[in-house]
Amino acid sequence: MASGLDSYKFGSKNNWRRRIWNEAVKRLRGSGKKISECVVVYLPGPDNIDGEIATSKGFKPWNLYAVEIDKKRTNMLRSKKVNVINEDLNTVLTVWNAPEKIDFVFADFCGGITHNAIGLILNLLLSECFNEKAVVAVNLLRGRDSHYLKAYGFMLKDINKHRGLYFYRILMLFYCRLSASFQDLEPTKKLASKQITFLNKMTELWANPHSLEYKSKCGKATLVMDSLIFNWGSAVNFTNTDRKIFKNISHVKTPQKDNSVLNLTFDYNCDFSTIRRKIGASRAIHTMRRNGTI
Ligand SMILES: C[S@@+](CC[C@H](N)C(=O)[O-])C[C@H]1O[C@@H](n2cnc3c(N)ncnc32)[C@H](O)[C@@H]1O
């Protein structure tokens, strides 16, 4: 399921990539973290440029978890000695059981509002993989959305096309719907202006999101990429009671284009042992490289 381009080494993407890493470092340091101790999960793409930038910024190679869903790309990366988990990023985040929690997740999906984006939103709300004061970055492509965008379109009319901001608005809405104290914010066909005001306030106050965009050429077409980076862990500050409420909800109901309901499952009771073994294997390679035993 390779997606996107064969190489992501081009000017606007290089600038953008550096900006995201700089912003992540600034935010992590601002939360009092040592970059050398931060655990990162990211999508390396075919060239693992992110891995190189990360180490140049002081992240340690043994704290960088590269995840790639495509088998061919995984093999290519492995031939360059990149330690890669060949899995879906969202599944990895859902079942993450390494003793270290994640400080920075960099989801450079380069896709629209699809199952990838919605899955990440669910993980942000429900997974326990993130450290306190974690930072999240997403990179989404304008105009390649699935039916999810149609389903949520009515909640996004006041936002000007930016897919990162769409992502954030949907995250806020999910949060409101999951939490008992915000039941009255259940989305209707059109958001009431007081709901928009409330959500915009949350956007301002919560996670300090920073949006950016860049353009890239694909044949004759110009693609617009929308990114967002924000401080998630410190914003949510979930208590155990919150988590209990969230975990009791085994699915999140989201309207489809025909207004029927789609169940997004987020099931903690599945047997995830194979994926956990993959995470464990990646961690073991990191430990051996760190200790110089391989
Ligand atoms: C846009 S590229 C990453 C580029 C890289 N960040 C860079 O700047 O060079 C996205 C990569 O993630 C993979 N990918 C997409 N969705 C994924 C998912 N849900 N889980 C794991 N890998 C995924 C794609 O196969 C692709 O190789």
Q: Describe it for me?
A:
The structure is a single chain. This protein is an alpha/beta fold. It has a single domain, classed as Rossmann fold (3-Layer(aba) Sandwich). It is 42% helix and 21% strand. The chain is built from eleven helices and nine strands. The chain has helices at residues 11-30, 49-56, 71-79, 89-95, 115-126, 147-152, 163-178, 193-205, 232-236, 240-248, 273-290, and strands at 40-42, 64-67, 84-85, 102-111, 130-141, 210-218, 221-231, 251-255, 261-265. A seven-stranded mixed beta sheet has the order 3-2-1-4-5-7-6, sandwiched between helices. It has a two-stranded antiparallel sheet with strand order 8-9. Helix 4 (89-95) packs parallel to helix 5 (115-126) and helix 5 packs across helix 7 (163-178). It is globular. Residues 249-265 have low confidence and may be disordered. The site of S-adenosylmethionine has 22 residues, from helix 2, helix 4 and strand 4.
Keyword list:
single chain, 294 residues, Rossmann fold, 7-stranded mixed beta sheet, two-stranded antiparallel ribbon, 11 helices, 21% strand
CATH topology: Rossmann fold
Radius of gyration: 19 Å
Largest sheet report: 7 strands, mixed
Distance between the termini: 31 Å
pLDDT averaged over residues: 83
The structural domain count equals 1
Q: What is the spatial order of strands in the main beta sheet?
A: 3-2-1-4-5-7-6
Provide a count of the helices: 11
Count of individual beta strands: 9
What is the CATH architecture descriptor? 3-Layer(aba) Sandwich
CATH class: Alpha Beta
